[in-house]
Specification:
This protein is of the alpha/beta class. It folds into two domains: 143 residues, Leucine Dehydrogenase, chain A, domain 1 (Rossmann fold, 3-Layer(aba) Sandwich), CATH 3.40.50.10860; 227 residues, Rossmann fold. Helix content is 45%, strand content 16%. The protein has a seven-stranded mixed sheet with strand order 10-9-8-7-11-12-13. Helix 1 crosses helix 14, helix 6 packs across helix 7 and helix 6 crosses helix 13. The longest helix is centred in the last third of the chain and has 26 residues. The structure holds glutamic acid.
């Protein structure tokens, strides 16, 4: 039986809950979503025919603040996946210490086959269906896989149309000209690189070689920042496959080719490899930056990287993390590694609320502090309990959540 992604998410949580001997009723409270919405979004397509899309939003947990998390456009979206992603947002927001609960949205669609006009209608339709339940103090969406600042702009504009006035704080990841924040576009990758720098210092690795799976916003920007740091990016890939040059790739060239031809496979002068081969390369750092479940108990034994930086959501299962840990490798979990995106979303929301904007330098300084603090906390919990980083991140976050439950009166102070 293949495990569902929601089951995988629960497994990660349960491992930590077991270490903490968490009461069954608390486990139940923290692993059931507060609200789930499913909507049908009719869109008149360019050929004149009507197509009905299925959209979801899960508001998983709002105990620490309004629910927060992106909206994904992908043919593989399912309620099971959105639920897992919303659950992960709850713990990610706790680990990186922003005052938000966890939420996530998704629409089953293939944006690669849709025109801009169709995507605009779909994005406006999503907000029309959900606007009552979304807002700066309720639930704040953002970009995720195959959504971007343009999609956020259509959404904030649709909200404006319905409400009759601008409400910039209802969504983050907006274009700069429309209430966006400096630093948000590169935030996920930049946050990951800050964490990576900490991990490299801990392991005393000076000039790492890096392989990156996924060359979208997060993967591409991570490659660019890593190259800037003087690290050697030897392999990158997208959904079509990967390229590998042990001497190091020219990242500017790979980005150009990806932008022009939609795949890195047209890069000349490097060996073509499969995505699975990229994961198993003999490198110092592996960055899965695409989709879920690429590192499982099936291939964890073949992974050689000393550090695995989970820039995607859910790329490694709890079992895989455990196998890597036993082999002495460090898997920095998604809820820590990619939390830079939502950290800067938080800064964007604050700036919208106070009506003042910070410079890129100010935003990145604040981001660095958040990422280093989160890394230090998870690192010390991993030492305290002698557990892998994934379990440590959950232990750290669950402890914080338990404090919230105590203050709210749902749990006796212990
Ligand atoms: N989609 C991103 C994530 O998975 C960003 C969420 C946000 O900024 O709210 O963390």
């Amino acid at each position: 039986m293949t495990k569902t992604i929601w089951y995988e998410a629960l497994e990660q949580f349960n491992k930590a809950a077991k270490v903490l001997k968490l009461d069954k009723s608390i486990v139940e409270l923290l692993t059931n979503p507060k609200r789930i919405f499913q909507v049908s979004i009719p869109v008149r397509m360019d050929d004149g025919k009507m197509k009905v899309f299925q959209g979801f939003r899960v508001q998983f947990n709002d105990l620490r603040g309004p629910t927060k998390g992106g909206i994904r456009y992908h043919p593989g979206v399912s309620i099971d996946e959105v639920k897992a992603l919303a659950f992960w947002m709850t713990w990610k927001n706790t680990v990186v210490d922003v005052p938000f609960g966890g939420g996530k949205g998704g629409v089953i669609c293939n944006p690669k086959e849709m025109s801009d006009g169709e995507l605009e209608k779909l994005s406006r339709g999503y907000i029309e269906a959900m606007h009552k339940f979304i807002g700066p103090e309720k639930d704040i969406p953002a970009p995720d896989v195959y959504t971007n600042p343009q999609v956020m702009a259509w959404m904030v504009d649709e909200y404006h149309r319905i409400e009759g006035h601008n409400v910039f704080g209802m969504i983050t990841g907006k274009p700069l000209e429309l209430g966006g924040s400096e630093g948000r576009a590169q935030a996920t990758a930049q946050g990951g690189v800050y964490v990576l720098e900490e991990a490299l210092k801990t392991l005393r690795i000076k000039k790492p070689t890096i392989a990156i799976q996924g060359f979208g916003n997060a993967g591409m920007t991570a490659a660019e920042l890593a190259a800037k740091d003087g690290y050697k990016v030897v392999a990158v890939s997208d959904s079509k496959g990967g390229i590998y040059d042990p001497k190091g790739l020219d990242i500017k060239k790979a980005m150009d080719i990806k932008k022009k031809t939609k795949t890195v496979m047209n890069y000349k002068g490097a060996k073509k490899i499969l995505n699975e081969e990229l994961l198993e390369l003999n490198v110092d750092v592996l960055i899965p930056a695409a989709l879920e479940s690429v590192i499982t108990s099936k291939n964890a034994n073949k992974i050689k990287a000393k550090i695995i930086l989970e820039l995607a959501n859910g790329p490694a299962s709890a079992e895989a993390r455990e196998i890597l840990f036993k082999k002495g490798q460090i898997a920095i979990p998604d809820i820590l590694a990619n939390s830079g995106g939502v950290a800067v979303s938080y800064f964007e929301w604050v700036q919208n609320n106070i009506g003042y904007s910070w410079s890129e330098k100010e935003v990145l300084e604040k981001l660095k502090i958040k990422m280093c603090d989160a890394f230090d906390s998870v690192y010390s919990v991993s030492k305290e309990f002698k557990v892998d980083f994934g379990t440590a991140a959950y232990i750290h976050a669950i402890r914080k959540m338990v404090k919230v439950l105590e203050w709210r009166g749902s749990l006796k102070k212990g």
